[in-house]
Each structure stands twice: as C-alpha cells, then as structure tokens.
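2024-03-11 09:14:02 INFO queue: dequeued item LicD family protein, len=287
2024-03-11 09:14:02 INFO validating residues
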Amino acid sequence: MAELGDPQLLAKIQRAATDVLAELDRVCQELDIRYVAYGGSAIGAVRHQGFIPWDDDVDVCMPREDYERFLREAPPLLAPEFEVVSQLTHPDYPRPFGVLGIVDSVFTPSVARNRAFQVPLGIDLFPLDRIPKDRRAFKRQSAESWVWGRLMFLHGTPTPDTGLTGPAKTLAKAVFHATHQGLKVLHVSASHLYRQWEKVATRYNNTGSPVLGDYCTQDPLRWSAREDELFPSIRMPFGDIEVEVARKFDAVLTRGYGDYMNLPPEDQRVNHAAVEVSFGVWQDPEQ
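2024-03-11 09:14:37 INFO prediction written
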C-alpha cells in the first residue's frame, strides 16, 4: 500500500471534514441548494457508508446556479467556525472551484507544497456546467478550460510536485517555474485567469443541454451526468451523518470508475499526502 501517513492524523482529518460536510448539508437544506457527493466521496458513501478508508478529503458538486447561490448566500448562515473561500472572497485564490473550510485551518497536498495561498481544511465545491451536444465544440471548450485552470494553478504554485523522477522531473519543474514567473512578470492576476476559465466553462450554459460536467478536470465528459441522473438526489449515511448522493449513482460512478464496488489494488490506495495540516478553530470531540 502507498504511504498514507499517520493513521491517527488521517482519522482526525476525516472527523473534521465530516463536521464540515454536516454544516454544508445543513445550509444547503436551509437554502434549498442542490448538491451531491462527488468522486471518491460518492464511492465512500455507497461502498463504505462514509470515507474510503484511506481518503483524506471530501468533494461535492453542484449545478452552476446552485454553486453561485451557495457562494453568495451561505456565508451569513454558517456557524462561526466555518468559512467559504473562493475567487469571490480572495482575489489571489489559485483554484477555479471553491472550498467550505474551517477557519484558520490549513490543508496543503503534496502536489501544491510550494503554494503561497493557504487553503483551509474542508470540502472542495465543484461547479457543474452544461456540456454542448456538438462534440467538436466540447473538445475545444474542454481543452481551453483545462489550460486556463492549469495556468491558475501554476500562478499560485511555482514548482508543483509532479511525482516524476529524473530528467522528466527536471524538465517539468523548469517549464512550470518559467510559466509561473512569466505570469508574474506580465502582471497576470489569478482573478484574470479565473475570469477566462469561467467564461469558457459557462459558454454553453444557456443551450438547454441536459448534460452537466466538471470543467475543473481534464476530462469533463468522464465525470459528466444528465441532470436527471443526479437529481432529485437521495440521502445516504456518511459516518454518523447523512449526505446527498446522485439519484442514479450506479450509472454515474460506473461511467467514471468502472467496477467501483471492488477495492482497487493496494498500490492505488493513495490520498493527497498532505505536507501541512492544521485544524484551526475546530474542536475535536474525541480529544
């Protein structure tokens, strides 16, 4: 099995993230905002009724209109130990998706070990946008959104940890650092990059397409779903709370992961290998 770090720390991260998830669920119910557990978090709910045992984060996704409502309307309703962080709140925020996090906490994965912006420990919030029916238009849109998203990441992370070794690592590091420096020299802001990404991601949102996708990823089609596959969502246990899961979760997860009910090989049981974790104002009930 890949190195997963301190099991006690992992359990504490999972407890903290569950508390954030409970707060998100409470506020979404109060505001009638749609969301579903996403990716590995959805597998966790279905297969484990909680976290995948080695997982160290929670992801949810929302249709764009619900996502934007959450960013605007959730903050005044949150308990004081939680905060929403996004481009709306922090112009130097280096990611195209928001996070609901614990105040004064930090969670830095190994890939972003040199990132200047300290993202809080919490839940990643992914907006879902419409995928056009025209395949050529979609491929162009997908490629453009990925470029803007990667530039945004490199703007905030001069030398990301790629996992490469040898000459490939040296070359990648040089390219990434040059890109980062070029953006700085040209005074390109994270906000400008985000606006370009958002313009591309939302390009077809008024077309009436029934298919939603996550343009924060390199392959939005793999993680796409018809709106009626997601909603109305269903409730499932997640540890000692309940969360929303896609109505047709089996179809969605099979499309993204294949045989998701079987555990992957041990060498694929990896997490974000965080290099910095702090819990801020969160109080651990087990301490």
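2024-03-11 09:14:37 INFO annotate: The radius of gyration is 19 Å.
2024-03-11 09:14:38 INFO item closed
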